[in-house]
Design a protein that fits this description.
This protein has 82 residues and is mainly alpha-helical. The protein is 63% helix and 0% strand. Helix 2 (21-32) packs across helix 3.
């Protein structure tokens, strides 16, 4: 990733203020143990954050990803670069 490409963490932080309460809850959960927290199944990610799976889908789409799989691919790329 080049220097002008933001990490998922940066994107979450940038968009945080425009999120719903449930999305903020999910964002906090993801940032608490970043990036590992986003690598489980969508159900596991939702359960840890105490939100619904549709909330997870909506939030990752709001962040600019096609869906949860696309979101996880990006997290894996970040991990490979560290």
């Amino acid at each position: 990733m080049s220097n002008d490409v933001k990490t998922v963490s940066d994107i979450i932080t940038t968009r945080y203020d425009s999120m719903t309460r449930a999305e903020k809850q999910l964002a906090n959960s993801l940032l608490d143990n970043y990036p590992v927290s986003g690598l489980g199944s969508i159900t596991a990610v939702a359960e840890v954050a105490k939100v619904s799976t549709p909330t997870v889908v909506r939030m990752v789409q709001k962040l600019g990803f096609k869906g949860f799989t696309d979101f996880q691919v990006r997290l894996h790329l970040e991990l490979e670069e560290t």
